[in-house]
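Entry 14. Ran structure prediction on the chain below.
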Amino acid sequence: MARQSTARTVAQKLRRTWFKLVSEVGERVGYAYDWTKARLPGAGQMPSSRRAEQVPAQSQPQATSPSIAGSSSDAAPAHLPDGVLLYAVGDVHGRADLLISLFARIEEDAAKSEATPHLVMLGDYIDRGFQSKQVIDFLMSDRLSRFETYFIKGNHEAALMNFLESAERGPEWANYGGRETLVSYGVRPPRSMTMNDEWVEAHRQFTEKFPEDHLHFMRALELSVRLGDYGFVHAGTRPGRSFEEQQEQDLLWIREEFLNAPGRDDVVVVHGHTPADDAYNDHRRINVDTGAYFSGRLTAVRLEQDQISFLKTR
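Output, structure tokens:
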């Protein structure tokens, strides 16, 4: 009997270890797929670059020659009002360590200017990384009080809210990183990728443990923000529509139609959602999603009047 009990315990431990390994590999493969897809010809993403922490970008390249980070401040594709210094941060994806490191550099940089500092977070604060709760805690902290702050809603925040409404949305959320968010809030993630009693229990625990102030934060997220000649969104905009006419589905999910559109609409769009090797800038859009979870590099674009540069964690 003791041997059977020992064997059963060992088997359970092996199954848990195997499941954890498969889950982590699956998440990395899924993110690598997004990363690779973004770099395919026609996706409008840039080749890799490993330059200094604050790296300005070239502006208005030809369609066949995407912008790569340069070495000094350059002319931006649009203009901000005088007295406004703006930083827009790409997808954090549960990497509070990178966010805290990047924000320290933003604070140091902003202290050198007399302009009012603005901070725009472009969504996807959660999932994939294991520090989602810590990310939200930081974004709600007094550390940001010196900045005018704007928090954009990403598709991953939408997925979390969907799960709060219905346990049946759990397996879908797990496909792109929801398990790690559950862990960060002290909830054991279900092993199954299909709906079962484990997801019902996880939903019950998550709704109990999800802080009320975090729920208010999620509900208050904005779909878009316009400042000067820039429009800030998570994923992109539907070509041919004005910035004010954009729909939530596109703002959270659009990819190829936006990335490959030939012309600029009424604003220069600053976005994340599509991971790239390095920050991208041309005459119609700026992408600052550099795959923080996958690459260890979180990026912010710095905009002031008609100048552009980038701050990075590495």
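The two ends are 56 Å apart (CA to CA). Will compare against last week's run tomorrow.
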